[in-house]
Amino acid sequence: MEKLKSFMILGGLLILMSCATPPKPASQEDPRVGQLQGQVDSLQKQDAAKETTIGQLQKQLTDLQGQMTDLIAQKKLADDQVVATNARIGKIQAELDAANQDNASKMAQLNSLNAKLAALQKASGALSADLDSLKSGITKTQADYLAQIASLNGDKAALQDKINELTKQQAAMAIAAQQSEKDLMARVAQLKSLFAKEIARGDIDIRKFRDVLIVSVKDVALFAPDSPKLRPETMNLLKGLSDVFKAAPDRIVRIEGNTAVAVSSPESLKLYPTSWQLGAARASNVAQYLQEQCGMDPKQLVATSLGEYSPRADNSTEAGKAQNRRVDFVLIARSLYEIDQLQTVAE
Asked: Which listed residue, of 32, 50, 67, 281, carries a Cα 20 to 30 Å from 199's Cα?
């Protein structure tokens, strides 16, 4: 009971401390923060359910102790009855002796009194046996409930440890999110400094969404029309991009090839009959150049094609097609690609 009171007092103090803490400025959170908070809430509900169960078991234990007290009182009454019976036995024995001295006619009374004595002794023995059985049952039941309480207290401690661990992880993720935000802003500043002219011309566009940085480069800045071959004059641009990407080794660079509705030249159609294939060839050539000529770790690179199916403008106009023909460099957390570390649904 004292441990239960301590847990209740500690829970109250934690609630007061959480209420007294000034709210932190709203920040962009990682989706896993919400998931972890959900797990914390669920574990706290389980903890409350355990507390309720412990309280019910404690009440049952108190009731059993009351029953044991009643049985002890019954035993005392039975002992008094035994004493009274023994007194009667003495009286009967005296009467028997007197009857034996009187005459033989008292023998019948003696036999009757002996029968009464045997019955009383048997009743007294049965009462003592019943009392011992009840005491044994109460002792066993009490031990079972104490064992259940101890087990629930152990479960409660394990749940609290898990809550504490999840709270630590949540705090660590918040710190990591702040550091990630700071790092992304540094990359944005670096890109704006390196490619001020290209940005001014509209060849390069920089966007940021939560923890993702996207650098879009128009195809004319990298390739000849309808071709995946890199233009020689684009090498410095890719070298500058690689310097920024290598400064963020904790992030994956997903190179996405985007095209317009379709390629136009017959020669390109023979080699790349769909926009998927042209987008993939362009993304692959850029990834290969970043690896072989710029020294990037290939484990940091992902090449993919979105074809004509992720347009940023209307594909029915030439101006829209020009915007849609692009290569997007998406800087994203490496953990999202480390699928070998993900747990299965069954776990």
From this structure: 281
pTM of this structure: 0.51
3-class secondary structure, 218: strand
The first and second tokens of residue 151, run together, are: 């087990």
What's the domain range around 244?
195-336
| Residue 223 is assigned to a structural domain of this protein | yes
CATH at residue 49: 1.10.287
pLDDT digits (tens, 9 = 90+) for 177-234: 556 677 778 888 888 988 989 999 999 999 998 899 999 999 999 999 889 999 998 8
Is residue 300 classed as helix, strand or coil in its secondary structure? helix
Domain C-terminal end among 125, 157, 182: 182
C-alpha dihedral (308, 312, 315, 319), degrees to nearest 10: -130
Inter-CA distances, 124 with 71, 73, 80, 119, 174, Å:
15, 16, 11, 9, 75
Residue 238 has a pLDDT of 97
**Residue 321 · residue 260 · CB < 8 Å:** yes
Confidence of residue 276 (pLDDT cuts 50, 70, 90): very high
Quickly tell me which residue has 């045997």 as its tokens. 118
Say yes or no: 154 and 6 in one domain: yes
**Pick from 60, 262, 230, 48: nearest CA to 141:** 60
Strand order in the sheet with 204-209: 204-209, 212-218, 326-333, 251-258, 301-307
**What is the DSSP code (8-state) at residue 274?**
S
Contacts (Cβ under 8 Å, ≥6 apart) of 156: 7, 47, 50, 51, 54
The listed range with the strongest mean pLDDT (253-262, 267-276, 277-286) is 277-286
Average pLDDT over residues 52-59: 88
In this structure, the answer to whether residues 144 and 207 fall within a common structural domain is no
Instruction: Of 239, 212, 236, 218, give the one whose Cα is nearest residue 282.
Output: 218
